[in-house]
Protein 1
Amino acid sequence: MSGTTEKSPETDWRGVAAENQDELPERISFLLRARSRRLLAELLRPYRREIAVLVAVIVLCNGASLAIPFLVKVGIDSGIPPMASGQGPGTLVTVVAAVLVAAAIQAATRQVFLRRAGRIGQDVLLELRRRVFAHFQRLSLSFHEDYTSGRVVSRLTSDIDAIYEMLESGFDGLVTAVLTLTGTAVLLLVLDVRLGLVALLPLPVLLLFTRWFRRQSSITYRRTRETIALLIVHFVESMAGIRAVQAFRRESRNQEIFAGLNVDYRDANVRGMRLIAIFSPGVKLIGNVTIAAILFYGGWLALGGQVTVGVLAAFLLYLRQFYEPMQEISQFYNTFQSAGAALEKLSGVLEERPAVAEPRDPVPLVRPRGLVRFEAVEFSYLDGTPVLPRMDLTIPAGQSVALVGTTGAGKTTLAKLVARFYDPVAGRVLLDGVDLRDLDDRSLREAVVLVTQENFLFTGSIADNIRFGRPEATMDEVVEAATAVGAHGFVAALAEGYDTQVGKHGGRLSAGQRQLVAFARAFLADPAVLILDEATSSLDVPGERLVQRAMRTVLADRTALIIAHRLSTVEIADRVLVMEGGRIVEDGPPERLVRDAGRFAGLHRAWLESVSDLPR
Amino acid sequence: MPPDTGTTRSRRLRTASLWRLRSYLRPYTTRLVLIWLAALTGVGIGIAVPLIGREIIDGPVAHGDSGALLPLALLALALGTSEALLVLLRRWLLGEAVLGVETSIRDDLYAHLQRLPMGFHGAWQSGQLLSRATTDLSAIRRFLGFGMLFLVLISVQIVTVTGLLLNMYWPLGLLVAASALPIALISLRFERRYVDASRRVQDQQGDLATVIEESAAGIRTIKAFGRGPYVGGVFGREALKVYRTAMEKVGLSSRFFTFLEVIPNVTLAVVLLTGALAVGSGALTLGTLVAFTTLMLQLVWPISALGFILVMGQEAMTAADRVLEVLDTEPAIVGGTDAVGRPRGHLRFEGVGFTFPGTDRPVLRDVWLDVRPGETVAVVGATGSGKTTLTSLVPRLHDVTEGRVTLDGHDVRDLSLAALRTMVATAFEEPTLFSMSVRENLTLGRHDATEEEIAAAIGIAQAGFVHDLPWGLETRIGEQGMSLSGGQRQRLALARAVLARPKVLVLDDTLSALDVETEALVEEALRRVLRDATGIVVAHRASTVLLADRVALLLDGTIAHVGPHHELLARVPEYRALLSAGLDEPLDEQEALL
């Protein structure tokens, strides 16, 4: 099979122009933001009530916090004069008590807020993690082939981290800051309308400034997300392939590439930090100018006796309080922008639909028998190269079929269609009379298992990996499966037996051992249809012989589709299909095909020669 | 993850970890001095502005002197503007400095990881490495860029303000200073518990990243078994661990943050009460009390921010600790200084033994083998007998634990790694392909290969299919080349090894996934290549064994027999069992078929 043709011509093959998504037209940018907002709203929806309560709590908290300077003013203005005139400290004591009560309320509400908001944040994060993870799992192989695992990792780590940061610090900060802002603005106006208006005069400027900042930084942070993703992709790939990197002295070239990506990421970040370097002092400047203006105007009014000294003092206090949170907002704003960009990417992933879609009304398969039918199936990869021009085929339940043919004949494609890794372009593939596209995914996967050359093992023990075929299997069943495929011997010889850790990607085991474990895993899954695509290539001859022997019994009551270059497999097949150019050119029991002296007979002869020890 | 992940390390050491990274700041010394100057001046100005408020209230307002009002207001304006400018300067400079530090640490980390041998990479989960290169480094950056400066600024601010308060009216000032005591005590206690939780959360995030990486890399297997939901469950459990620890952190910090806000407010109430009494008794002017309370309120934010920044600092410390865990790992395999003047490719295993770290059962023991220049030896042995391990000792992907491997008389450990690995090229059974162009994958070992050489290597490996790819050699193959068939991947790996023109060519069961016809063609071409190179061929099948002049049979971790294929076949029953199965029982059955 020439599998690279699976990709669409629109995708960038050379990977030079890596998704240049940072400079988007405003319209698309707006749509993206709307999409991320929708996702955020959706995530927060279950907490509507709680958030409402929290807003009330935080209003109370800020009320209490704002009341403290106000109470200080009251204390100075109306608590001290009576004392000076010898009327006793009654008012003052009341005021001080009020300050303490306010402090207590603030503390209590703050505590509640931090806890609750923290929990909601973590809940949202957990939900988002699970949702994105599950979605990645649902997406088809064609998606993953394009997207690469590094990107998956970067979405689920670095992007989630960005959102985590926002939830951890930004959410609290922003809510508090916004409330402090509005609260203070109201108080300023209540204290003195003239001074209040002067104090709030720069607000429109501030809003315009913030708008500018938001636009600029959303571009920058999109770029940051993109560059870190590329960095992670390179990191993950070079660490996964470190053996080849070292064996072929790729280190220095890799270092160059990595340093380049690292610089790109740094530059994106520097741009972001420069924006804040402008934004943050800008806000400060506006605040300080306002304070100077209030000092002048307020001092002038106080001179004329139009405001009291207490009001002026309170004003100065509040103005600080007004612009201090603005500082904080600018601080948190970048975590927000960063999280926004991350949400944009994540919502994009969630928007992807699996190419191999789940049926709307899935048909469950109760007792799969394993009757496979191809009805006028056509298949071509996205670039239009036909792989299967038209295939009609019936494999009765319980039959073992060997698929034979040269590279690119379409054997693997046929196998992948049965396992529904892809959907046919035309026609349909049926299992027990049900179109695979209508079949409930769970039923399908229980009924059909495909074992490929790529025997991915997960971190964990050998037993864990075998059990992957049927997670609820008992240890006895695991051993039984291993014994059936001839894997028990080598496992038992290991110091820790089935508890032996296989290491990263199964690296502690040899290729042949990994293949045996993968076999055991498939047998344990006990599917009605078992597809073996070149699944014995790494085994040595005795190992293969053991597997062959095991297969006779294991395959006895199930449908099997076996692809192997080594024709020894053919012995156990009831039927051989010889494929060429996506068509079946010979079909029949092996004995007959060998006698017929066609393609198969030729292949069989070549194979016999290759296993004999005579030099050719 | 290795056992020494440092939860046992003392707190002192953790602080030291962060401190040890200071050398990365060195290139930015001038910048840092400027940054600190700007920051400190900024703080000074921040404190001065309210003092002007006092001047106005006590001066022009109290005395009805409108003439002095404008100059004071202008002074406030000038100070305010310069404060903003200083912030601009500081942030502008700081951004580049801290990002520069983060970038260099990451570069160094990556370089170090590339140097660390396979033994290390086998033991460390990929997610743990990744989380160090990303999450941990940004924690360090955040602290260096924001936290550290603010920690100092805030401390300076707190100390200065307290000093000013003491100076303004010492009894009240003393009161304020005393309130620092409970803050310090609680901070220490909080820190101890928080550090522990944050280390745990960082480790758990690394584990989570590992699950993610495997779920993406193993997606075909997961799909084949329909285990998406199951893997989702595993992920969910790991995510839940992170969630629980994070919630623990939320609980800790919410208490701590609240506490930090309560203290200044309570102090304020006390100050107000006592201050009013002082004003009543005439010990304090009204203006001073106003300025005092104004100044005091300036302490509220810094003190509450202290919590946030301490948290940041602790995270940076655990992060530095985790990063240094990797950087402190000495590469167990480093090159020597020797170079082979005229390499001939004489390879010898002299009493070689190998035991994987952490196990006590040797994989190889007392292996003796002499492969003369130009000779090809096939290594045959049962599954898991240590064939691949044996071949990996030659380019030092692993190091012998006993005996030595020599190349042209030099112990491979004395040769420079570059020289050694130029002489030896391996085609692995499971080819590692990267998501880059076919050309880049092929020229991995020799980026200066000419078109003709590339074409020749493709020819030898029968990898002509690459020309049918949409962009030919420039086609980017997917990650791990997964969109190619197993046979195609193996042929690319073979072409890569051949292209490296090694003196010693190692073929680790490289032809296993090829069909019979292609295999025959490849072998034919390989014979020519192997004439000029020393060859080690790991083989399962007679057809591949026939590439070799001699065969070495690995039994029980050692080479039990060496000799020509036919001789071993006739003489050694174990060898027959391994290789002649095609002629044994199955063939009888085939004959029966015929």
Protein 2
Amino acid sequence: MTPRETYTNIFVESFGVDASALDERFVYQCVPTWDSVGHMSMIAALEDAFDIALEVDDIVDFSSFTKGMDILGKYGVNL
Amino acid sequence: MANLEYSHCRIAGISVSVPERVRRSEEFTDFIGEEGVDKFIKTVGIVQGHICDEQMTCSDLCADAAERLMTDLDIDRQSIDALLFVSQTPDYIAPSTACVLQHRLGLSEECLAYDINLACSGYVYGVSAAMSYLQTRGINRVLLLAGDTVSKHCSPEDRALTMLSTDAGSATLLERSGDSQPAGRFTLRTQGQGFRSLIVPFGGYRHRFGNTTRVEIEPGVSRCDYDGYMDGTEVFRFSVMEVPKLFKAFYEHFDIDASTIAQFFLHQANLFILGNVAKRVKIDKAQLPISIDRYGNTGAATIPTTICDHYARDTAAEVSDLVLLCGFGIGLSLGIGTVTLDRTRILPIGICTTRFDDRIDALHEDAKPFINA
């Protein structure tokens, strides 16, 4: 599985959405499942999958599907 | 800087009481679905918690814990010189619940009693306040009662808060001792600019009367003016950024060697926050007891609950250990400390079934005429 596929799958599983919904419009709280609990669950899954530890500011700034890709790039995860 | 060090005192015993009713997170399946519950358990860490009914309050839980502790330690109630009640869920706007508890527990009228209005950081502040009294000649024993009925603070239709919030009350007896070694060291801090991040906005005197009708704020979240509000992002940022800074300042100020600490008892905010804080301050998981899975987030009671659950899950124990306490949350308020448990009696968590009848309906009937006829 490519890093991009892993990233997409984590969003699909964390928020119960179809992969086709994941674009620049997929942002925090755009679906009921992306609330604070869903956010923590998603971050924990990303940290496990890519073996990284996100800084607090990055966890808080992780506000959309596309922004998350930029943030993961800082940790050497190129999507 | 609020850096405090105390000697010549010890924690004689700790007990915790919870209500009988157990609420399992699975009960929210209709609300957030089976998958949502599974994710909640995995991320927040709460499998179940104990919940009070309408009639039971935090003071009932604390009184039950105190009764069991004083009986177990065979304490003369007249020997208790101070009673501190730490909670954000008191019985009344006024008077201090501590005054009612002094009466209920049969303590001396020479006992000072008052409330401390703190929650998540409250146990650390309470132990520090109790130890500070024990530095003076006139106080030999302090009964610290700390707890919350957090479940009553929040809307049942606020999924993030209601699933997190549970109830417990604790009793900790502290007394003077002859030991000149440090019994407790504390660093206490406040970031009041964050007061809006965790708040019960109405019902006090800034906003006395509000709307009691719950309205939908966002999908799955309905609140009225009297329900608790939490800005999850700000609380997370505060917890994960400020608590590690607090650890660092505390360790540096007191020249603490973390390897000498046996256990780290942190406020059980949620599992994700606990894990993040532990990772940043390098706490080994084996030294980070967890009780949130079975008792939830009980505000001022999470630290003593975790202590009792860790040391006395099945049977009472006598414990001598250097332990760290750290509480952080509403205020925003935070505190950290190390305390030396010295033959401290720790009781298993008990179930409270008693409810105080304050005869409030007879308030006016009981009023005596100013002048006897």
